[in-house]
Specification:
By secondary structure, the protein is an alpha/beta fold. The protein has helices at residues 2-26, 42-53, 70-76, 95-102, 146-149, 151-156, 175-185, 202-217; strands at 30-35, 59-65, 82-86, 112-116, 133-139, 157-163, 190-193. Bound molecules: guanosine-5'-triphosphate (GTP) and magnesium ion (MG). Guanosine-5'-triphosphate (GTP) binds at residues 36, 38-44, 71, 119, 163-164, 166-167, 195-197.
């Protein structure tokens, strides 16, 4: 019985996600959905990415959090339009929440919409938002076993950002094993090793992202 209820929710979500996707297509928007554990560095990566892209791509951001507007306030300082969604308890964004936020963003003047999902390695990935691609952010301090333990996000993502590389000497992480586990789950995935703190590795990630935006928008 419970399974039927969950399927109903997911089917309803898929319908709204398709509607979002249509709207994104009509407005020539490329949309990414960034996911990862609490504290993996999603907002920090985003802040640094915005600083790199702001002069070449028209950006907007949707921030998803259970409570507070803390992340939206951080993004605001980088001079791009941002809308905060509070899920009020839910561990993920859904397509309807995003649809509600879209009314408050002038989509005609945006090339790249970045959605930061609620910090969680599991729930958000089950809910399509109508995005073009999903991106996983994993801090190397979380341990090299995480892709095999939580494979769905890594399977569904077009790119995995391995963040906090500046802390590598303080961890026991095996980078070769981490990379090969991710590739086992998703052979075509791009992997970027970055430090959002120092900025190292972020240019390469930003170049890849711009290419994706241009591929969609011409
Ligand atoms: N050393 C180091 N710290 C980082 C790096 N990236 C982020 N941090 C720190 O990690 C903490 C969490 O970063 P956030 O960007 O807020 O993480 P988040 O994934 O957005 O967190 P939630 O939105 O709560 O899920 C902050 O104290 C950041 O300063 C990094 O590359 N290196
Ligand atoms: Mg955040």
């Amino acid at each position: 019985m419970e399974i039927q209820v969950n399927e109903g929710i997911l089917n309803l979500n898929e319908r709204v996600a398709l509607e979002n996707k249509r709207l994104f297509g009509e407005n020539g928007l490329f949309v990414i959905n960034i996911m990862g554990s609490p504290g993996a560095g999603k907002t920090t990566v985003l802040e640094k990415t915005i600083d790199i892209l702001v002069n070449s791509v028209r950006l907007a951001v949707i921030e998803g959090d259970i409570y507070t507007s803390k992340d939206a306030r951080r993004i605001e300082k980088h001079g791009v339009p941002v809308k905060q969604i509070n899920t009020g308890g839910a561990c993920h964004l859904d397509a309807k929440m995003v649809s509600g936020a879209l009314g408050e963003i002038d989509l005609r003047h945006v090339d790249l919409l970045i959605i930061e999902n609620v910090g969680n390695l599991v729930c958000p990935v089950e809910f399509n938002l109508g995005e073009d691609i999903k991106i996983a952010v994993l801090s190397i301090t979380e341990g090299d076993d995480k892709p095999l333990k939580y494979p769905l996000l890594f399977r569904e993502s077009a790119a995995v950002i391995l963040n906090k590389m500046d802390l590598i000497d303080f961890t026991d992480i095996d980078m070769d094993s981490l990379r090969s586990d991710i590739k086992k789950i998703n052979p075509g995935v791009e992997i970027f090793e970055v430090s959002a703190r120092t900025g190292k590795g972020l240019d390469e990630w930003a170049r890849w992202l711009i290419k994706k935006v241009r591929e969609k928008n011409g």
